[in-house]
Write a structure and sequence with these properties.
Elements: H1 2-37, H2 40-68, H3 74-88
Length: 101
């Protein structure tokens, strides 16, 4: 019984110390990631990657549209057309609040 009690006490102490160290490390990582995200070079690279992704997606859409053509159901075609019309008059932000620049 004494060994079990010692084991449980050690386990509890290890858990408490481990969670405290884990929380401190988590806060350090969070602070570091915030600093990286606010770095202008990182932000510019992310914007460039997003812009290139949108260009590639547009090319892929064009290629698929040419190949699929009139095989797409009318309901899908109407939905895509309405989304394009809605986005044509938008303020440069998508549904998630990110810039389309």
């Amino acid at each position: 019984m004494r060994y079990r009690l010692t084991f449980v006490a050690g386990l509890a102490l290890g858990y408490v110390l481990g969670t405290r160290a884990g929380r401190e490390r988590y806060e350090q990582l969070k602070k570091s990631m915030r600093q990286v995200a606010q770095n202008p070079a990182v932000r510019n690279t992310a914007e460039t990657a997003a812009h290139q992704g949108r260009e590639i997606a547009g090319k892929a859409l064009h290629t698929v549209s040419e190949k699929v053509g009139d095989r797409v159901p009318d309901s899908v075609t109407d939905r895509v057309r309405s989304l394009r019309e809605r986005n044509a008059g938008s303020t440069g932000e998508d549904d998630w609040g990110t810039s389309n620049t």
